[in-house]
Amino acid sequence: MPTTGAPTKITQGSQTKGGIGESTLRPDGTLKVTGEFAYSSDMWHEDMLWGQILRSTVAHAEIVSIDTSEALALPGVYAVMTYDDLPTDVKNYGLEIQDTPVLAHGKVRHHGEPVAIVAADHPETARRAAAKIKVEYRELPVITDEASATAPDAILVHEGRDDHHIGHVPHPNIVHRQPIVRGNAEEAAKKADFVVKGEYTFGMQDQAFLGPESGLAVPDEDGGVHLYIATQWLHSDLKQIAPVLGLPESKVRMTLSGVGGAFGGREDISMQIHACLLALRTGKPVKIVYNRFESFFGHVHRHPAKLYYEHGATAEGKLTHVKCRIVLDGGAYASASPAVVGNASSLSIGPYVVDDVDIEAIALYTNNPPCGAMRGFGAVQACFAYEAQMDKLADQVGMDRVAFRQLNAMEQGTIMPTGQPVDSPAPVAELLRRVKAMPLPPEQQWLSAGEEADVRQLPGGLSNTTHGEGVVRGVGYAVGIKNVGFSEGFDDYSTAKVRMEVVGGEPVATVHTAMAEVGQGGVTVHAQIARTELGVAQVTIHPADTQVGSAGSTSASRQTYVTGGAVKNSCELVREKVLEIGRRKFGSYHPAWATAELLLEGGKVVTDGGEVLADLAEVLEGETVEVEAEWRHRPTEAFDLRTGQGFGHVQYSFAAHRAVVEVDTELGLVKVIELACAQDVGKALNPLSVVGQIQGGTIQGLGVAVMEEIIVDPKTAKVRNPSFTDYLIPTILDTPTIPVDVLELADDHAPYGLRGIGEAPTLSSTPAVLAAIRNATGLELNRTPVRPEHLTGTA
Amino acid sequence: MRVNFTVNGRPQEADDVWEGESLLYVLRERLGLPGSKNACEQGECGSCTVRLDGVPVCSCLVAAGQVEGRDVVTVEGLADFAKQRACGSTCGTPLDEAKQWAAKGQDSQTGEGTELSPIQQAFIDAGAVQCGFCTPGLLVAADEMLERNPNPTDADIREGLSGNLCRCTGYEKIMDAVRLAAARQSEGV
Q1: Hey, are the CB atoms on A698 and B170 less than 8 Å from each other?
Q2: ipTM
Q3: Given a cut of 70, is residue A121 above it in pLDDT?
């Protein structure tokens, strides 16, 4: 199958060092390896107090009374606040639906909901004070799944909903519902020679970023507040914080502190408003730092899901139809659930050609922990299920599993279930070919060091549970599709301010955006773009704050595309102005100023033929050129609420994985030996960072395949494992080698042809590992994560 | 209570320490050394790893009072620690060199010009740093592992660093960084 598409060609800046396409090193690298980089939990201020949140000990209850008197009497305590102390009529916040109370009002809807906040002069004093607050609860029955949420007599998690989804949902305990109907699945099913039905369960995954929720709120002299915070989107926080405080947005100043990872978990507000409230109440700086236990309650998780699929294929292996129903558990508050529903439904059949589909996705309101954004955002759960279906169907048809996928793989021009054509390269078959073509790791590599088995390379590891007895190898494949950028008509813009001037005789560019650098390397890439577009060596990245326009969220794989696009755009505007100055100053000295295409390269103005016209330092002598401009990708539109039709997505991103596992079938222990990935990135602006993103995303997918799950008690809706002792994320011993093959086929709609890359590798990793375990064990395995009891028949 | 101990070669005194405070808390909040990180505060993630009398420990699990009179090395002191180790007992500044001493430029925003230990440099060069929150603990652990085992196999590296969680990188670039530091060390670079 031919691969269509080509790499991007760059003219401007191609001669300048440190530009796009090079693996330049992180500008914050030195600070991060010396311990000098200031994360939000490292903030410190003279006279600062420590904030503490009291959280509900039950999942669903009326609050009968709150008694704060003993807490207030504790020496060292400066303030205790409850719902009654909130300063304005705005007492809720939320990303899309403002349904989340800043502090509980009369009722708690999930385990760990904030009820009261305390400020004290020592964190332990604050903790002890919070423990002295007496809250009397009258417990209510818990809503924990679809059956209990939609039962005729179900208690409504939110009474009196007036959000914009209530008009089209079948029950008030359903946040949002998105059907997609295209063709006629019922009719098409009659053409199927083989039909496979499956029911799948996806566990609740935690982002488990290492830097805990934290920040410092400092009261300002003008009655405002300055918040130093780790977040994914400063301006979204600002919009939610300011009204609760009763302050204009101009009096809530926000500066991004160091962010210790995010993965979606910092899209929602955590301690931001609480810290500001306590700072304004006490008139003192207030720092709040969650510990890991609290962090598990302090942010939303990935939606657990039930997925019901029916796939059909002809005897030749062509897909005839797909019917599916995806039920996402949104927990107690809406968070990003509506958008997750949109993604889950529109990407539910994967990167395949199917003309006849009948799709429905819903998110529930329950009393389980709130769920929202996590890397992959609705597409992850679907990919786990449709890839399991594809394997089963290939087996029925009697085809090789990879060949079956390739036969049905989408290409540029394929129409999505939403009716949207895929209008840039979609090398799905090629990515599968590439991962399959990679050499397999040698058999029995635990013997590679000699006669003795190296148990570290075996399932069970240093527990020394096997020296190879009962160990079976399996290989599995999967491929996925993820949208890039905010979809469904969202005005998804970004702003960049770029300045160019002469400092110490050298031309220097400064890039100022509000982009949250959460580790992804956006700051590295911004400097590269500025070098490429402005032909300079020196680029300063200004700290991110709200003194510049919004950059949108660091999520949806969008920042290099959108804020990168904004930086590129502002740089181009600066370049034009610089050339205008050059023409004004030097135009009369050389005709090329008027006639040739001019480039900025290596600190000089040159013609496209390479002739040097002037030094940038001369052109900019006595001048400062500055541009702040918004930049938008092409617009999208909402999905029709009945048919799901609409040009909903900006761009698609594709990755394929091959997993090789070894399973100790007697003990049910799994060792992933290798996870190979091939991904189309459009254009690798920084190849080292691209590979780093792919490897990191791959391992988060491995985590939810074999270990990661927040366990919620179905009887009480309480979280049972809120710690790194009981919620396991992969260690370096659990992690295999991850060979990565990067393909660069330009998307003509995107800056430099690039494709958002952060999320796609998180999709296909999980189903590839599951497929490999099925291949090793012959078990059906319709849930993830897989635990030993699922492999030994003792579940 | 008052705690006296040595941090990165300098005697330190911490006053008004509450008995329940950890070494991590005292380093971060009382001594202005926030490089050791607070990712879990329960001894599972390794982000707070420091050397206590040479032994890597999770400083969140060490009560501040336990370090009385002892010697602590944190990520902030890693470069100096590695330098001293490299020059052995003959360490010191010769008179001629001292006479020519000049302050080295250091960019306070980017840290450019800062002297780094080999493992720190390798982490930057290999792309092993993303969000960086696990980095200080990993650096202290990896430096200690390479001190014990200058030519580790991949399995040795994985075993040696298995107490340090990283959520961003998938560990591949961390493996690259440790291999790079080991290779540079054996080449004497």
Answers
A1: yes
A2: 0.97
A3: yes
Summarize pLDDT for A135-194 with one digit per residue, the tens.
Answer: 999 999 999 999 999 999 999 999 999 999 999 999 999 999 999 999 999 999 999 999
**Residue A4 confidence (pLDDT):** 64
**pLDDT category, A38, cuts 50, 70, 90?**
very high
Interval A589-631: pLDDT, tens = 999 999 999 999 999 999 999 999 999 999 999 999 999 999 9
Q: Which of A29, A454, A731 sits opposite B155 (nearest CB)?
A: A454
Per-residue CA distances from A463 to A458, A682, B47, B156 (Å): 10, 44, 24, 16
Residue whose entry in the numeric block shows the structure tokens 């417990």: A139
Q: CB count, 10 Å around CB of A53?
A: 24
The CATH code belonging to domain B3-74 is 3.10.20.30
Choose, out of B16, B167, B179, the residue to mutate when testing the contact with A (most A CBs < 10 Å): B167
Do B130 and A521 lie within an 8 Å CB cutoff?
yes
SS (H, E, C) A392-419: HHHHHHCCCHHHHHHHHECCCCCECCCC
For residue B9, the tally of other CB atoms under 10 A from its CB is: 12
DSSP letter at A742 equals E
**Is the pLDDT confidence value at A2 over 50?**
no
**Partner residue opposite A212 with nearest CB, options B39, B161, B169:** B39
CA distance B148 to chain A (A): 19
For chain A, percent of residues with pLDDT exceeding 90:
97
Record: contact B155-A457, CB cut-off 8 A: yes
Spans of all domains in chain B: 3-74, 78-86+115-187
Q: List Cα–Cα distances, B14 to B11, B34, B131, in angstroms.
A: 10, 15, 30
pLDDT at A3 over 60: no
Over 50: is that where the pLDDT of A779 sits? yes
**pLDDT for res B106:** 62
**Count of residues for chain A?**
795
Interface mutation target, options A724, A732, A740, A765, chain B, most CBs of B under 10 Å:
A732
Task: Please name each of the domains of chain A with its CATH number.
Answer: 29-37+493-632 (3.30.365.10), 40-140+212-259+266-298 (3.90.1170.50)
Per CATH, the homologous superfamily of domain B78-86+115-187 is [2Fe-2S]-binding domain (1.10.150.120)
Strand partners, A179: A360
Q: Which of B16, B171, B175, B180 to mutate to test the interface with A (most CBs of A within 10 A)?
A: B171
- Is the preceding omega at residue A767 within 30 degrees of 0, hence cis? no
d(CA A229, CA A674): 37
| Tens digits of residue pLDDT in A366-394 | 999 999 999 999 999 999 999 999 999 99
User: Cα–chain-centroid distance for residue A389?
Assistant: 25
The packing angle between helices A522-534 and A559-586, to 10°, is: 30
Q: Tell me A655's DSSP state.
A: E
Structure tokens at A700: 């988060």
Residue type, A745: L
Tokens 């493992």 correspond to: B119
Do residues A449 and B156 lie in contact, with contact meaning Cβ atoms separated by under 8 Å?
no
Scanning A409-510, the segments in alpha helix (DSSP H) are: 428-437
Under 8 Å CB-to-CB from A218, ≥6 apart: which residues?
Answer: A45, A225, A226, A227, A228, A279, A285
